[in-house]
Hints:
The chain is globular. It contains seven helices and seven strands, in the order H-E-E-H-E-H-H-H-E-H-E-E-E-H. Helix 1 crosses helix 3 and helix 4 packs antiparallel against helix 5. By secondary structure, it is an alpha+beta fold. The protein starts with a helix and ends with a helix. A three-stranded mixed sheet has the order 2-7-4, with no helix packed on it. A two-stranded antiparallel sheet has the order 1-3. The protein is 35% helix and 9% strand. Strand 5 and strand 6 form a beta hairpin.
Amino acid sequence: MCDAERRLLANALLDYANERFILLSETCIPLYPFPFVYNHLVLSRSSFVSAFDDPGPYGRGRYNPQMEPVVSKEEWRKGSQWFEVSRQLAIYIVSDTLYYPKFKDFCRPACYVDEHYLPTMLSKELGSKLANRSITWVDWSRGGPHPAMFGKGDITESFLTKIREREDCLYNGHAGSICFLFARKFSPSTLEPLLQRASEVLGI
């Protein structure tokens, strides 16, 4: 997974006009019109990568001591694989030859590189550049190893409005209500009801 992500970043970096880089899945939807998303990202002083210290079995429990001294257990981080980074961070990721080999060699199931590599490396080397949160909303409330998958019956005006209306995140050092620009996971059956509500609710 991370091999593919690094190749995608390297290819996108070939276009010097590209300043921000975001990884989304096929089950993601935008929550705002493209011009709004573009301006929000371009004007941000931070990159949106979530990284946190999980002391449990799915966090530090996945750490392999053979990663020392490059990465210590205290430096080990976990986060979402869906990220957004600036050009500076994208260049750092694709040029990394110190951390990635360690993760390829010593982060193997049940350790997943895409959940630990970027959060750990970027927190350690460029932590001040991170907003330390994801801009992709997911719902873990239903339990299980994967977030909820939404179907046609879930798509209502109140549901979409609820995702968009948040007031608990920082943007360029100030409190803001725009926490998420995208949301997942949405099945193909949601396309029709999403298109019906896109103009009125999402402004798309």
